[in-house]
Amino acid sequence: MPEESLLTPEVRALIGSARPEAVATVTLRAVNRAMDTFLGRHNQSFAPGDDVPGYVLSALEPETEIGALPPVLPSSLLISNEWEFERPLRLGEQLTLTSRLADISERFGGRFGYSLYFRSDVEFRDVTGAVVARSVRTMMQYDSSAAREGEDDDE
Length: 155
Description:
Helix content is 13%, strand content 36%. It is built from 3 helices and 7 strands; from the N terminus they run αβαβαβββββ. The protein has a 5-stranded antiparallel beta sheet, with no helix packed on it. The chain has a two-stranded antiparallel sheet with strand order 2-4.
């Protein structure tokens, strides 16, 4: 475990930074992949313009290569992913994704030892510029070699 915070001025300066815009299309492939992941099957058929399940966002974000977090610690883990929708996603529509690093915090101790939490916000906009959905993702970076065995995160 580090003796002091790894939230250096350089790491803190990343808070609020935006990543380059990315474009993703709600394709049938993305819909089927998300349905396979969440339901274990994809036996529904959709036509262009049809509303599709919101969890299709999970298939769109990785394809856009928005950008990586700074590698402060060697291991990472997705802690949470929250979605908010203004309207349903539609098959065939093109969305513009804007992403920014909203916050970084740290934790000393617990099951993972010292850890850093990176919260990023992503907005999905349609071709008119209207917000369709938002995603808030929290990633944790940690060094498992510094973890204490048997220690619970609640302690």
